[in-house]
Design a protein that fits this description.
Length: 101
Amino acid sequence: MGTKYLFKCPRCNYQAKVSGGKDRGMFITVRTMICNSCTELVDVIIGAHRQEGKIDDSGLLKLLGRCPLCKGSDVEKWEKPQPCPKCEREMQNKGIVCDWD
């Protein structure tokens, strides 16, 4: 099970609900990345796995390595000190938003 957190920029108030790094659910692995095309902080699918039985992962494969918002592939790892994609100031983790599978 994965976890999403609320990250907020203290300078420009930009916020995003993302995992904050590499995370894994039952069927996918994501990594939080900055999309350089739409300048958003997003969780990008970097892997898909199967549980018992077969799942249709054709839709997942189309999103592999792509921004879930604009579908662009110009994404880069969001690493410490975790800059805001809008103003580049360090974002703050405000806590857990939800768990996901």
